[in-house]
Amino acid sequence: MKEFRLFDISDFVMDEDFIRWVSKREKSDNDFWKNWLRQHPDKHMVVAEARRILESIGTEQASVSDHELQSEVDRLLHTIQEQKELPSITPHRTSINKWWYAVAATVMLALAATAVFVLHNGRNAAKKYSYDLIAPSKGLIENVNTSEKTVTVKLPDGSTVNIAPHSRIGYTNNFDNGETRDIYLSGEAFFNVTKNPARPFRVFANEIVTKVLGTSFRVRSFEKDTVIQVTVRTGKVSVYSQTAAGTDIKEIAQPYHLGGIILTPNQEVVYQKEKEKFQKVLLDNPLRIRPEPPEQTMLYEDAPIEKVFREVADNYGISIVYDNDILKKCTVTADLRKEPFYNQLVLVCKAIGASYEIIDGQVVIQSNGCE
Amino acid sequence: MKESSQRLEAVLMEGLQHNDEQSLAALMKLYYADLYNYASRFTKDSGLIKDCIQEVFISLWQRRETAGTILSPKYYFIRAIKNKVLKSLHKLNRKKVSDELQEEYDFFHEFSIERVIIEKQISEEKADKLRKTLTLLSKRQKEIIYLKYYQYLDHGQIAELMNISRQSVYNLLHEAIFKLRSLWHTEFVTEY
Fold this sequence. Notes:
The complex is a heterodimer. Chain A is an alpha+beta fold. Helices cover 33% and strands 26% of the residues of chain A.
């Protein structure tokens, strides 16, 4: 039994039994509350106010007529009848799809192999990193997602992978007992890697290799696309090109070592296959890497700029670069609590008469200082 | 009441697993209004909404054998329709549907205070204040209020659906209530 006696207004407004009473007015509830209020006369005001709040958030509900509803139900049953006649929607649907995919993969593989023969030393040199060529030669254990939805799989080391539609990953059977944990990817996947700095986790996606020690990140590498993208959610990853001269695949196996291009949270690296070039950018909607901070933080009154930038940067794991000597007299009064990342930047810059630029996945502040 | 509707849900989900089309039809009838209402927060295109609802039920039918794994049908439908509608809207706008990083979408929620004004006979001045307070609520706050008070989802479900923490659900809701509270509080102080 809930202790309604100890409830304040907010508790009532959020309580499902109370909400049901106010919105539905059923007899059993009416009786209960009448009786309860008689026993707790001091609670009349609180209950009245809570009721008033609930009543003031009424909304116009879009309505559907009975006739419309019936015709939609008929339409659904009709579609299902039709689908029954198609062989693809049988209880064996998934296995048929897999079989179909195996055939398709073989055909594609054959085509890819032909292409390599024909254009032996053409610009298709990058093909040697293609998943279709690697998979059979290494005897990979594969996870193929032929569905229209993301599929989550667990790897032997406890890491999880969300495999996007029409994508696949593969790994060798000594995945969990070699020096490195290697995954081959075709398509797009989000990785949440179990920490183990002694045994780097590497994702091979066409021309690039992404190496991490323990973090979560996304790789998008479809054969048909002209770019490969790697996005970091938490932690740090490094990205290497397999085609660039001088890239030593051994170096990428080094434990505790991150070389190549380093990515931090909310950064994305875009690799242009044609130009063999990397470009680092910030995501359009950076996500916090820390939980929502307590109420009083991010609300500033005459706060030193250094503190404000540090807290904004820490919340998103994004680095903010500025000249502390020039800005040291600047203070900020602003409420950044509910603002998304870019709004926070705009508000702070406005407060100190500065401007910002995103350069190489970092925020760079330009200002002439404050008086 | 609540218990009996839960039992009905359970019976229908069971029927679904036994290939009973009438169970599917009954589920659609049971949830249609809720789903239609929720979907209309994202778009005013009623043709698109109806198509999306059809697709949600067709996919449920296609995966009916595993329907036993659905713990809360209500939440399953709400979540499915949100994904479906947002995906279709993206396609229409020719934006690439990226991933969970894509969190920007409109949420229309008009509060109708006319009923309150009439029933409670509040003054025009008060009504104005109420309107202003309600427009001060953020898009997310409105969505949470809608999910909690019109779809009766619990905080855990709201958090999952909106991809935020349970604590933020609570904080956002609390903040909204606080705003409304200060509005009514002065009235109670003056009345009594």
